[in-house]
Amino acid sequence: MADQENLKETVKEQFARNAEKYVTSPTHAKGNDLDLLVEWMEPKENWTVLDIATGGGHVTKKLSPHVSRVIATDLTRGMLEAAKKHVQPTCQNVWFMVADAENLPFLDDTFDAITCRIAAHHFPQPHLFIQEAARVLNPGGKLILIDNVVPADEVLAKFVNKLEKLRDESHGRCCSIEEFTKWAMEARLSLEKSRLRKKTFDFPTWVRRTTRSEDQVKQVERHILEADQRLQEYCGLVMKDGTISCIHIDEWMAMFIKK
Hints:
- The chain has helices spanning 2-17, 19-24, 26-29, 32-41, 58-63, 77-87, 126-136, 154-167, 177-186, 203-208, 214-225, 229-234, and strands at 48-51, 69-74, 94-98, 111-117, 137-150, 175-176, 189-202, 238-240, 243-258.
- By secondary structure, the chain is of the alpha/beta class.
- Keywords: Methyltransferase, Transferase, Ubiquinone.
């Protein structure tokens, strides 16, 4: 329990310190998954939508014109304040609330749709997030989850999660598709659609979004450069002028429906 609470405090500190970076980050602000999210969800004008761990508010801003209201939650107050500045000039049907994804402050069967994008790997107990999302979702409602994932291969999974942890102290764990699917099934969520893709990062930008020093950057670089060929190939290592230019990671997008 102490480790879980410590991680949550680290998450709050990290996101408060880097809030504006997450608002402007191309990885979070752009991407065809935002358009695809709307296409898959098919939102209705009378819907109430919950955006869990909204971060920079990009999903909230995308969905706001299509629904009655969006409740944007995040564990970090400073992150919510940054998201509000980004969203509210054009979106008046959005409410912002500090909330823990693993213990949502809402009644059962409250929301027509729920989203969580590029955030679950920060949750200490992601299975509780899935349970909570299912609980507050209306019967027939849709949960769209987008997150970085790892293969079932333990060596590859360990390599990716250590890479992420070296770069970002608030990283919890990238889960596998098999884990997410199992937790969803246990929560009576049915998988309707999914997409797995390789997401490429400009390494110098990506690594410095969360690191505190150049020494920490060097640790991340060594982890990649000292790995064996299979691990380097898995993360799509590209070198340029003797330095790491880019890498990639697996990202899974899935839509579940509550039975």
